[in-house]
């Protein structure tokens, strides 16, 4: 469970990159592969909010022509990760504190529902893995914590196919990733432990198949992060 989300973080450019090659399936497939690679780089912090993304650099880095690079940028614009300005260029999207507050309030309401949908399909093996991730987070550094936390939460949402909800939750996670990273540095420096307690409470509720309690714990977990982010507006200036 969660192997995709638990992947290690990439190093900041100019680390060697896997070439993205056009194949007989054409520019569309190459554009999707560039989008996947660039999305991972943005989420792993290789690009900061507001940083310019130069098409020629991406084309060289990923071994692709300009056409799939442009397609990739349009894909990530639709996901809210990239901002395109006509005849000017592309930048990694920024969000304000007010926008982040709105996104977290949406998450408070929809993630517990998505968890409820998936809860009956979480096996004993899945719960053991969640418990392992929760324990590993207690000793993790910032980047390890972010990868483990993402694996912990998103792996609970992938078992039941949904037409809207799953994609919406993942997009909200992706759009706030930079700000979780900055906030995680803050709570690590402060020695804050409540996040770990909440993870273990959530594991216990899932183990009991107690959907009401799991929803309550998850909503409170998201709400606490939202309130703490509001106490640190510098996160949105410095991220």
UniProtKB/TrEMBL annotation:
InterPro entries reported in the protein's UniProt record: GntR_C, TF_FadR/GntR_C, Tscrpt_reg_HTH_GntR, WH-like_DNA-bd_sf, WH_DNA-bd_sf
PROSITE patterns: HTH_GNTR (PS50949)
Annotated segments matching region Disordered: 1-27
Comp. bias (Basic and acidic residues): 1-10
Assigned keywords, A-Z: DNA-binding, Transcription, Transcription regulation
Highest taxon in the source lineage: Bacteria
Coiled coil: none
Domain HTH gntR-type: 28-95
Name of protein: GntR family transcriptional regulator
